[in-house]
Amino acid sequence: MHLAWIDWLVMLVYFAFVLGIGFALKRYIRSSNDFFLAGRSIPAWVCGLAFISANVGAQEVLGMGASGAKYGIVMSHFYWIGAIPAMLFVGYFMMPFYYGSKARSVPEYLRMRYDEKTRAVNAFSFAIMTVFSSGISLYAMALLIQTLGLLDGLLPGAWVFHFSIFLSAAIVLGYIFLGGLSSAIYNEVLQFFLIVAGFLPLVWIGLRNVGGWAGIQHRLPATMTHSWLGMEHASTNSLGVGIIGLVMGLGFVLSFGYWCTDFLVIQRAMAADSQDSARLVPVIAAIPKMFFPFVVILPGLIAVCVTSHTLGPTAVSVPSGIVAGVSAASAHRIAADPQVKESHPHGIIPQKADPITGMPIVDSTGAPVYNYDLATPLLLLHFFPAGMLGLGITALLASFMSGMAGNVTAFNTVWTYDIYQSYIRKNANDSHYLWMGRAATVGGILLSIGAAYAVTSFNNIYDALQLVFSLVNAPLFATFLLGMFWKRTTGHAAFAGLLSGSTAALLHHGLTIPQGALPGLHGGWIAILHIYPSEMAQNFWTAIVSFTVNMAVTTVVSLLTKPRPEDELIGLVYSLTPRRIDSHLPWYRRPIWIASGVAGMAVVLNFLFR
Amino acid sequence: MGLDVRLPLGLLFLAIGTLLAFYGFSTMGSDLYAKSMGVNLNLIWGSIMMILGLLAAWVGRKRRLS
Which of A21, A237, A582, B21 has the fewest CB atoms within 10 Å, counting from its CB? Predict the structure, then answer.
């Protein structure tokens, strides 16, 4: 597929701005505080948009489009149940401790509240996770560029994947190296608006084509156009998840574990210019987040409803090399997925082709296997003329870069403050740590490139991240919840709880398996004690088990160990910290009013799509 | 921070919007738009981005000067 000159020009203009911001902000970076925390000087709304943009990585735009095409609007649970409540909670209840304690990172808060070893566990696991996530972003972007054949004719086929990885890594490196967190945040605001500007007209023209929401409802099975239909039991909805797994696993453990403890997003709120602003950041971010299903999931539903087949599988160049392993793995998984009904239309979603023979891949019953990951990109190619196509592809690239940059800025901070300054070189001057921050940015990017090449066995990126989150993040929330709201919790208890929570997650994963999967990466590698109806159900229950074990172990060990004196915990624990008075703020700037409005709107959205 | 983010944001939208609008203007009536169901998306969306960009850049610049 060849792009017109106008498409390239739009992309070039964007890249020029991205790097231009890095150069423009370089002169403001004088201390490590400027580099890692943006000098704590950014207004709430800017941090709020960066908060949401850093979270919108490859897994969201492509993964949600893919899942929308496969499962339907039911994926909105990842927003209205799986994000909004947690975002309101972290803003209203937890930000005062993160911001007010003057901790420079989430692991540093853990050291202040608990002890060194708890911080170390969090810092190391987080650093590894950010590199992994950033590698996935890179990998997905390069794979997409290769699959769509964007660089065909400009570069030899074998170079495209490698060139895409190194060029995108170099751009992200450039703007973070120069301007640190401020540059990442400013770029995330641009990326947020670009994603909206690229996808909004796509949804508009797509809906016009399929006859609006009514047209989609007419063509697709009812479980795909309702969020709550059949949710009471795993066997009656397309996700294969029951209501307890959904609400407790996704809505509580996984979602709160991510939004309330992940330094990637918290770092954006910590960069706010005051504590009042910091509390508002996640709450403001929840407003666009609530409407994101219409920008990222809806294209998937439109893609399966579009009837003309102008872009069949032949229009997409056959992926080669690294794609081979992925195709085979995912062919097995989609074929094994009993939830995907044969009856649902596939629109412009191409069948998977064998990368070697070029023949369509079929499952064990002879039914074709579809490549859902291409839903959103193919919809762009289907509806956008030259010009707009450049904008659409720029929006896709922006989403990859914002996700990657979010991980890299979180990595360089945790590495420098929580690992390097704590365990390697304690008393250097500030300019040395600023230098180390820049060096860590280079190191983080190199590790991401390594991770990108290592990630070849997962196809559905979103599932892969969910698995990582459920192993690392699920026990975390119990540690923060007890730490912030129960003054008796001790450091030894937190440490023991975290380790046993993660061990429990690992054991649960090893002892259970989703229906139809083979033992190994998807579970059941110790023994098979239980079979879940879907991989998602298994992920949600892994999280629930891990959270419960951590909660129990931390509580018991806390009662057996000596608590810290109360005066050391002021500002770190809810009951020992004076309540924040916000009566000086006008009502529309008070978190409680905005949060109530957002919560009410989320209820309305759930009701409308029930 | 000395730079108001609305300034680069506005300029980016202004630049991309102008490019798209001009391209849309010069390709008016072309069968390029058969894909987008006869709608000249470049001209329409480009103009909208241009106007929004101008607004954002203007506000960003005003704030910076004050």
Answer: A582
**Measured between CA atoms, how close is A451 to chain B, in angstroms?**
32
Return the bridge partners of A530, or none.
Answer: A512
* Residue A413 CB-half CA count within 13 A: 34
3-state class of A322 per DSSP? coil
Q: Is the CB of A41 less than 8 angstroms away from the CB of B1?
A: yes
Over range A357-384, report the average pLDDT. 80
Chain A positions in Cβ-Cβ contact with residue B33 (cut-off 8 Å): 385
pLDDT digits over A392-444, tens only?
Answer: 999 988 888 888 888 999 999 999 999 999 889 888 888 899 999 899 999 99
Q: What residues of A are in contact with residue B46 (Cβ under 8 Å)?
A: 387
Nearest to A38 among B1, B11, B24 (CB): B1
| B3 to A208: CB separation less than 8 angstroms, yes or no | no
Residue of B nearest to A182 (CA): B1
Task: Report the gap between the CA of A203 and the closest CA in chain B (Å).
Answer: 12
Q: Is B11 in Cβ contact with A17 (below 8 Å)?
A: yes
**Both tokens assigned to A400:** 């990859």
Answer yes or no: are the C-beta atoms of A92 and A595 closer than 8 Å. yes
Q: Do A330 and A324 contact (CB within 8 A), yes or no? A: no
Query: To the nearest 5 percent, what fractions of chain B are helix, strand and coil?
Result: 75, 0, 25
B41·A385 Cβ contact <8 A: yes
Q: In this predicted structure, what is the pLDDT of residue A392?
A: 92
- State the smallest CA–CA distance between residue B42 and chain A in angstroms: 6
The predicted structure's pLDDT at residue A329: 33
Distance CA A100, CA A278 (A): 9
Helices (H), A353-387: 375-383
Q: What is the DSSP letter of A361?
A: P
CA A10 to chain B, closest CA, distance in angstroms equals: 6
Helix residue ranges, H only, A211-251:
212-219, 222-225, 243-244
Contact in structure between A56 and A402 (CB atoms under 8 Å): yes
Query: Residue A364, Cβ neighbours under 10 Å: how many?
Result: 9
**How many Å apart are CA A244 and CA A477, to the nearest integer?**
18
Q: Which residue on chain A is closest to B20 by alpha carbon?
A: A387
Distance CA A452, CA A457 (A): 11
Tens of pLDDT, residue by residue over A283-307, are 999 999 999 999 999 999 999 888 7
Contact in structure between A550 and A496 (CB atoms under 8 Å): no
Chain A residues within 8 A (CB-CB) of chain B?
6, 9-10, 13-14, 17, 20-21, 24-25, 28, 38-39, 41-42, 46, 182, 186, 189-190, 193-194, 197, 201, 205, 208-209, 382-388, 391, 394
Which SS3 state, helix, strand or coil, does residue A288 take? helix
pTM: 0.87
The residue with greater pLDDT, A59 or A159, is A159
Q: Is the pLDDT of residue A204 over 90?
A: yes
Residue A513, H or E segment? strand A512-514
Q: Rounded to an integer, what distance in angstroms lies between the CA atom of residue A153 and that of residue A163?
A: 14
The DSSP letter of residue A580 is: P
A315 contacts: CB under 8 Å, gap ≥ 6:
A1, A350, A381
- CB contacts < 8 A, A to B, total 90
Does residue A176 contact residue A406 with C-beta atoms inside 8 Å? no
CA distance A185 to B42: 29
Distance CA A474, CA A270 (A): 22
Instruction: Tell me which residue of A124, A127, A121 sits closest to A495, measured CA to CA.
Output: A121
Question: In chain A, what residues touch B16 (CB-CB under 8 Å)?
Answer: 10, 13-14, 197, 391, 394
